[in-house]
Amino acid sequence: MRLDKYLKVSRLIKRRTVANEACDAGKVLVNGKVARASYDVKEGDVIAVTLGAKSVTVKVTQVREVVRKEDAASMYEPVLS
Would you give the DSSP letter of residue 14? Predict the structure, then answer.
């Protein structure tokens, strides 16, 4: 699954266009490297998103195309820095 779509489906970022713009601006890192929106997300990847003053780092546990809002948080687990 594309990175921008994963960010939207997992509800880390509300809209796919915002996720796409964040990737283009270099605000999304996957495994410590700046990633493009077209990056193919796999289980075990560590994604760091920085938007404004807020920074979130998560580890991908599942990659699913369709997820209910209540189950979206099960797609990742937070990484403590």
Answer: S
